[in-house]
Structures are given as structure tokens and as C-alpha cells.
Amino acid sequence: GTVAIEIVDQLGTAPDVLLVPVGGGGLLAGCLTWLHERWPATRVIGVEPAGAASMQAALRAGHPVRLDHIETFADGVAVRKAGDKTFEIINRIGCDWATVAEGQICSEMLDLYQVDGVIAEPAGALASASLRSVVSVEPDQTVVAIVTGGNNDVSRYSEIIERSLVFEGRKHYFLVQFPQEPGALRHFVDSVLGPDDDIVLFEYTKRSNRELGPALVGIEIGDPANLPDLLRRLADSPLQVEAIDPDSPFVRYFDELSKAGLPLPRLNWRRRTQGAACTPKTGDGTPIGNSHAR
Q1: 283 and 264 in contact (C-beta within 8 Å)?
Q2: Lowest-confidence region among 45-49, 96-100, 176-180
Q3: Angle in degrees, CA 148, 152, 156, rounded to 5
Q4: Does 266 have pLDDT greater than 60?
Q5: Distance between CA 179 and CA 112 in Å, rounded?
Q6: Taking all residues of the chain, what is their mean pLDDT, rounded to a whole number?
Q7: How far apart are the first and last CA of the chain?
């Protein structure tokens, strides 16, 4: 409860809304206890990550339960089972709840760093991330979101950016069967990509026959609202294209590469209408496919 005391001391009064990240529930239980006795009008909201909402599971069950699976990205709050003591306090006093997707946490981490200069770990950005779309507050209210930690490694930022882009609908994966003929990739760039679309991943796989060669293609679009147009152009093209769900093993495979710090094969090629064609290369500089894919 000392965190709540410090907040009131600094503000001179209690906030209208307090957003508290929740793992085992200790921070929330302490804040609830102190505020309930002294400032009961404060709206307290417990915020859990979507992949490890153990306290809300306990409240639904009436007692702490062990989750079979948790997402450990927000490791500071990734708790399989809520604490017994903290559950009793939270269950007795009560509060509002919010659940935040891990991708939304990533978007908040990036904004905290790029806009406010704050380095936050996933658990640290959890509470403020709920304000992006999950929690609604009034314009004139005093709102406090507790940022609990900055234990973040710069090597994780490729994973953070990836999760953010996928969550925001700006990054999409496709399995594309390219004809083994000159200009096939160039035709794809010119006829399928929009002016603000980028190929950010191009993994060319072994040809299964002489006519076609499959490639895993990651496309980042400038505006999520443009996705229907991209899908329409893909459907209208003569290429065989299969959209890959972000939760598929394909995407998780590249996510694990990122977590392990291994280089991802990338092609950063914005759609161009002028200029010479270029040969795409993997991360180590090796040309993808052969001269037909130019």
C-alpha cells in the first residue's frame, strides 16, 4: 500500500482512477486496502496480460487456480496461480478489471520510449497500455497508471516491434508460389504492393518443381485500413497465395528466431515504379533464389 500513499502524497489528493498491473496480486491488494479505507471513491482497475490472467481466473472460480498455459512475454506478471492472501483481499474489496493483449503492451512500450523517453519492461508498460483501447476514462479525470519496472534488454526490441506490428494489423505473412521465370518478383512488387507497403521478410524455399518456387513473404502495410485492398490485389494476381495466421507455427518460428537473437532473412524493398531492379538477399547477403527472382 505504500505506492498508493506515495501517489496521494505527490498529487495532494487521490486520483480518480488508478491502474495497477497484476501478477500475484501483492501491489493491487496493498493499494486496494489503503485506498478503500481512506479514498473509497477512487476507481481502482487491476490490469493483467491476456496470456496470464491468473487473478481474474481465480475470481471466476472463487479460489486461486493454476493456469495450464501462460504467455511469458510479460514475465514480471506472468504468474500461473494468484496468491492466496492477495486473492482474499482483492476478492473481499473488489475492483474493476482490464485485460491487455501482449501485442498492445509492445505498442505501449515503443510509445513510452519514443514519445516519453521511458524504458519500460513488458510488465511495466502493462497498466498504461490498457488506456490505449481497453479502459475508458473521462477527459477531466486524474488518472494514474503505475509503471513498475524498466528491466528491458535492447536485444528484445526486434521481438517487441514484431509483436506490435502484428497486433496493430500492419504486418502480415503470406506463402506465395512464384513462377520460375524472369521478372516474377518484380511483377509482384509492382502489381500487388501499395505505395506505402514494404516487403520486410522474404524467405525463399527450395523449389518443389520446375515451374513454381514457394516463398514466405512478410508485408508491412502503411495503414491497417489498406489490408482489404492488398488482399484484393493478391486475389486478382495469377499467383497462388496463402495467408498465414499470426498465431501459426510459421510466425512462431520466426518469433523464436528473434527471441534467440538469430538473424532473420529480410528484404527491405519498398515498391518502386522507377529505377533498376535489384536482387533480394537474405540477412547474410546471399541472393534469394536465382536470377529469375529479380
Answers
A1: yes
A2: 176-180
A3: 140
A4: no
A5: 44
A6: 85
A7: 62
What's the predicted TM-score (pTM) here? 0.77
Distance, CA of 211 to CA of 20 (rounded, Å): 57
> What single string gives the DSSP state of each residue in 227-276?
HHHHHHHHHHSSSEEEEE-TTSHHHHHHHHHHHTTPPPP---EE--SSS-
Q: Give pLDDT tens digits for 123-169.
A: 999 999 999 999 999 999 999 999 998 888 777 888 899 899 999 99
- One DSSP character per residue, 55-117 reads HHHHHHHTS----S----SSGGG--SS--HHHHHHHHHH--EEEEE-HHHHHHHHHHHHHHH-
Q: How far is the C-alpha of 230 from the C-alpha of 227, rounded, in Å?
A: 5
CB under 8 A, 24+ apart: contacts of 245-250? 246/166, 246/172, 246/173, 248/173, 250/173, 250/175, 250/216
Percent of the chain with pLDDT over 90: 61
Tell me how many degrees the CA angle 125-131-136 measures, rounded to the nearest 5: 160
